[in-house]
User: Fold this.
Amino acid sequence: MKPFDLATVDVCQQRPHYHVDLNMEAVVLNIDELHARAGNVCEICSGTDGLERVEVTTEDATLLCSICAEITPAPTGHWRALEGAAWSIEPAVQIAVWRKLNNLSEAWATDAQANMMMEPDVAARAAAVPIVHRDAHGAVLSSGDTVVLIKDLPVKGAGFTAKRGTAVRSISLVADNAGHIEGRVESQRIVILTEFVKRK
Assistant:
């Protein structure tokens, strides 16, 4: 397989676009692998503050700064970095960029999104409505996070109550339900409602 198997030309801009064939299985990377892939910078804006792993789909994760992860407010002009990030060959970055451009109403954002070149399966994942797991305070949850119970929860069928303040480490996200996560409490794997946890 050649890295660039098809070139097309944008007639309006008279510049070549390269279609990258990425026919490989998606592999969800851990934080260290994401840092290595991204060169220790945000994969959208190249910032270095507050870098964290953000799952964009159940198959894709990217390394984003606190601004691009929308934890802190973006300064004026920050989102123009999406124009450069739109040319990333990483499917996870393409999906994150496509979705953010889709939420912006400026003309430059519409043009940048229209000029993105993605494999059909990546484009389908980008267009799919993402399931976002959020804790009781609205913070986005990711697989592997640690959460704390904010309420005593009786565990049906297990005969115990998970106490308020209990830390649940290395949670898993329930792929088809944004209101559910899974975690281990008292050696039992249980489903927990996200409205009763806060991210640690």
In short: The two ends are 44 Å apart (CA to CA). Helices lie at 31-38, 81-85, 91-103, 107-114, 120-127. The domain at 147-199 is CATH 2.30.30.40 (SH3 type barrels.).
